[in-house]
Amino acid sequence: MSGDVLTLHATCVAVEGRGVLVTGPSGSGKSSLALALMAHGARLVADDRVTLSLRDGALWASCPPAIRGMIEARGLGLLAADALDGAAVRVVVDLGQTEGMRLPPLREVTYLGRTVSLVLGQQGPHFPAALLHYVRAGRRE
């Protein structure tokens, strides 16, 4: 593991062990997207603050100990969640940007020298289900 560590205002869940890092400004829906993914079987890694580091060559997301196992649900408060210790990040979802293309190009983002896939935020009830499928099965070109 490298000594490089980065803490982001973000949320992370894992789908079958694959990390989905959700970024965006305050109020953009990071926790809401995470809760939607968790309702379909994803596991919480971290909500509100995510610590990124390098582990075995991969970008690794984990949670600061003080907030482990908690996720905010607006209007309900802090909810308990059975959290994972961490996950290798496979895709980043940027809710600070909205996807305007029907068939967007492959996008990437780099943290701590590691490049991962980037998906821009989308409106509509299909997005969490489509994102789950993207993480599980990948994308065809």
Tell me the radius of gyration: 14 Å
Amino-to-carboxy terminus distance: 33 Å
Which percent band covers the strand fraction? over 45%
Helix content: 10-25%
Oligomer classification? single chain
Largest sheet: 9 strands, mixed
Alpha-beta content class: mainly beta
Shape: globular
Secondary structure tally, helices = 2
Poorly predicted runs: none
- H/E order of the elements? EEEHEEEEEEEEH
Tell me the total number of β-strands: 11
Mean pLDDT: 95
Structure description:
It is a single chain. The chain is mainly beta. The chain contains two helices and eleven strands. It has helices at 30-38, 127-137; strands at residues 5-8, 10-15, 18-23, 43-46, 50-55, 58-62, 70-73, 77-80, 86-98, 107-111, 114-121. Strands 1, 2, 3, 4, 5, 6, 9, 10 and 11 form a nine-stranded mixed beta sheet that branches. Strand 5 and strand 6 (58-62) form a beta hairpin. It is globular, with a radius of gyration of 14 Å. The mean pLDDT is 95. Keywords: Kinase, Transferase. Residues 7-87 form the HPr kinase/phosphorylase C-terminal domain. It comes from Paragemmobacter amnigenus.
Question: What attributes does this structure have?
Answer:
11 strands, 141 residues, mainly beta
